[in-house]
Amino acid sequence: xxxxxxxxxxxxxxxxxxxxxxxxxxxxxxxxxxxxxxxxxxxxxxxxxxxxxxxxxxxxxxxxxxxxxxxxxxxxxxxxxxxxxxxxxxxxxxxxxxxxxxxxxxxxxxxxxxxxxxxxxxxxxxxxxxxxxxxxxxxxxxxxx
Length: 145
Prior knowledge:
By secondary structure, the protein is an all-alpha fold. It has helices at 6-30, 34-58, 75-109, 117-132, 135-144. The model has no long low-confidence stretch (mean pLDDT 88).
C-alpha cells in the first residue's frame, strides 16, 4: 500500500484529520500550560496546512469542480460577500472554540477527569467520517434528484 493508491490516500487523510482534531480539542486535558498549548497548536496548524495541500491528491475529482456564482454580481459586490463571509466564519469559529473550551473547563471544575476528551473524540470521529465521504458522488446524486 502506497499513498499513490486513492483508497490509501483517503484513509491516511481521514486518519490524519481525525488525529489532528482529537489532539487540538483534547489538548487541555494533557497540557495545562497555555503557552505550551499555543506552541503545540501552532504545530497542528502546520499539520492542517499539509493536509490541505493533500486535498488535490486525495480528491482528484475536486479539480474538475467549477464554482461559479448562480447570480451575476459586480466585482465589488463579490469582494464584499467574500470579506463578509470570511468575517462571519472567523467570528463563528472563535465563538465555537471558546464555547467548547469553556464547557470542558466547567466539567473539569466539577471534577470530571479528561473533561475535554469526549467532545474531542466525537469531533474527531465526525471529521474522519466526513473525510471518507465521496462528496462528488454525493453531490451528483443530489443534483440528479
